[in-house]
Please model this.
Amino acid sequence: MPDTVNETCLLPGPAPGALSGETVRVDLGDRSYDILIGAGSLAAIGSRINALAPGARVAVIADSTVAALHGEALAAGLGGIVTLTTVSVPPGESSKCFAELERVVGALLDARVERGDIVIAFGGGVVGDLAGFAAAILRRGVRFVQVPTSLLAQVDSSVGGKTGIDTRHGKNLVGAFHQPVLVVADTALLDTLSPREFRAGYAEIVKYGLIDDPTFFAWLEGSWREVFAGGPARIRAIATSCRAKARVVAADERETGERALLNLGHTFGHALEAATGFSDRLVHGEAVAIGMVLAFGFSAELGLCAAADEDRIVRHLSAVGLPTRPYHIKGGLPGAERLLTLIGQDKKVERGSLTFVLAQGIGRAFVRRDVPAELVRDFLARRLTEP
Model:
């Protein structure tokens, strides 16, 4: 696996006073909400909750590592709002399971969280998905606020209302659409991420350029170092990603059409995650990076785009330090037939037919349904034997 960033050091923080914030609106009628983006935006969470739900109390579902690092900042931002309980969740994808969901819901009921109260998801995508799903089913629906603390969550999973857990059959197969009432993306919290975690989130930023914004992708090719370093470029990348997702969610909230484009790289990627046991052998953003390369490679083999498009994506992701090939995954993978079976469990399968997000070029992604399974199997067999 490429490794161009020192794993032992935290990412450098932004220069004091160098940042300005942005607000992105997700337009869903009477369920519309804001995404607050910027360093120090967590300080506004209490006033925003008071404006949205005067007198509401909060329950916090927090990643245990995040709570240790940033719990005091959240408490300060909440000010005088009553916190009914704080439920700690172990970090890692394994927390997105039935057992942990039952524990979280039980803790919220023990704390007597009511429908007029608010659940806060304080952590990365795992906690956001788990806490959001718990809020969706608690008393048939309790409002919740997303406070994403990873780059991946800030640009993707915290926006759009997808919540859920994993099962032995695959990733995110049990869940609900439940929109937050507010997203607070404090970019200062990203300074404590490891380089690996930050790179994984960056893969989702690249995705937005590859779907329909080739100008954004070209900007990332030239400015990714500034995005990693922090400052205005980081806020620009996050806000651009959030605006792109907000537009798609507003047009297709429940993924019946255009929203499926946001799954570029995910059909292959989710199968790779399942094949590695949802472990730290391959984190989600790394799986998406490999999945996007596979999606463009498959598109090129089908004659839909040029092989040079895949090469360009590989160059950029490799420069950043992300894996781009199946053989970059430590510990190996099962064969093509097993991966095809895992792809068959994907939520985008319809009546047994395979659905993929493919591309006619960078920034020209589209959804193709009824992809022949034998073509996918043969393609994977070739890619799995690459040196």
Remarks:
- The two ends are 13 Å apart (CA to CA).
- Confidence is low (pLDDT under 50) at residues 1-19.
- The CA atoms of residues 161 and 179 lie 4 Å apart.
- The chain has 13 helices and eleven strands.
